[in-house]
Structure formats: structure tokens, C-alpha cells
Amino acid sequence: MEAIFDDIRSHPLYDHELNGCLNCGICTATCPSAQYYDYSPREIVQLLWTENLEGIYDAMQEKIWACAQCYTCAARCPFQNSPGGLVMIMREAAIKHGLQSVKDVLRPFTRVMLKVISTGNQLAPNMITPQAFPDWGPNISKIDAPLTVLRKAIPVPTLHTLDTAWIVNLKTSIELYTIWEETGVLQQLEVVDSSLYDVIVDVMDEKRNEYQDWLDEQDED
Ligand code: SF4
Ligand code: SF4
Fold this sequence. Notes:
Elements: H1 2-9, H2 14-17, H3 26-30, H4 32-36, H5 41-49, H6 53-59, H7 72-76, H8 83-96, H9 100-106, H10 110-119, H11 147-152, H12 170-182, H13 185-192, H14 194-220
Helix pairs in contact: 1-8, 5-8, 10-14, 12-14, 13-14
This protein binds iron/sulfur cluster (2 copies).
One iron/sulfur cluster binds near residues 33, 41, 67, 69 and 87.
């Protein structure tokens, strides 16, 4: 717990996001997530301000994942705290320390992450199905429609395909991989989901080889 708190406290933004706390509850009163979840930004800030290590560790098991990162709290706090920013720092520490809560939260998004990392896009329209997104409820039926037919009905030229818009230029993909490597995203992913990490490294290697072949061809020309 101490190691986790040390990481939170030593984050470069920590002192900027936490300046004291009146315990006034304005942040919680305006927080949309507090309306729906067992979650209170006031509680998070108090835990950090009083350095309640057990409470911080406990909040990192579930509560910090309820924040929607809208920063309404930061706009309202009379102390100019940013509870949403503090939650972000706690999430980073949770990832770094491989807490089980991170794995639980990310599990439903594995497909989306694979799509983002392998193609650079988040979601192809044909991935939106009731089976893949049961948490969307009955309204998904409005989206889960015969997309090929619907697209043909659009009067502007869309190439009538589900795929073309989702193909990312090879060079762009390589640049994205470089950013993920340099910023530590891949390192974090390895801690959270080593199987997904292995798949993504394979995809990256393949694309890099493809890109290198393309460069070699250009040199020959
Ligand atoms: S950033 Fe998070 S804590 Fe702040 S108001 Fe939005 S949901 Fe609530
Ligand atoms: S973080 Fe700010 S708004 Fe929230 S309880 Fe503390 S002083 Fe009040």
C-alpha cells in the first residue's frame, strides 16, 4: 500500500490537483457518477488529503473506475482541486501495480483494445452486436441493423462498405505503435493483460515487416 501511495503522491500532477479540502461536498453534489454509483469525489479527495492508505487501496478496488472524467468537480471546487485528475493518477498507479480491479474493468474492452491497437480505430460498425455489447441493453437493436443495406440507402458515395473506412494507412499504424511504445502504453498493457499484449506485439511485428518490405521496394525503384 505504501508503494502505491508513494507512486500516487510523487506523480508530477499530484500537487497541482490537490490543494486541501474543506469537505464541503460541492464536487460530489455536481458529479454525474455520484448520482448512479457508490462513488463520491469528496471521499476520494479526503482519503488522499488525510493519507488514509487503507481507504485509498480500498477505493482503488472499484470506486475509482466509476469516474467519467468529465471534470465538473474541478470546475466547482473552491480549493481548485481536481478530484477527476486525482482519480486519473490513482488509475495509473493501479495499472502500474497490476491490481485485479484493472483487469476486471478492462476485460469487456479487450476486443475494442485489439481493434484500436491493430488498426488504429476503435470500433467497426459490424462489431456492434447484442452479443458483444450486452450492457447496452435493448436499444442496441436500433444499431444492430442490416448495415450493408442501410449504407446502400445513404445517398452520398460511401463506397457501400463496412471495411474501407476502417483501414488505416500502414505508416500511420507504425507511428501509432511507436507512440504506444514510447509512452509506456504497451508496457502497461503487458502488466494488465499479457495474452492481449502478445497478440498485439505479433500484429505490430507483422506490420513493421510489411512496412520495411514496402520501404525496400521503394529503394529498389
Ligand atoms: S471528473 Fe469524475 S469525479 Fe469529477 S465530476 Fe466528473 S465523474 Fe465526478
Ligand atoms: S474536493 Fe473541493 S469541492 Fe470536493 S469536498 Fe473538497 S473542497 Fe469541497
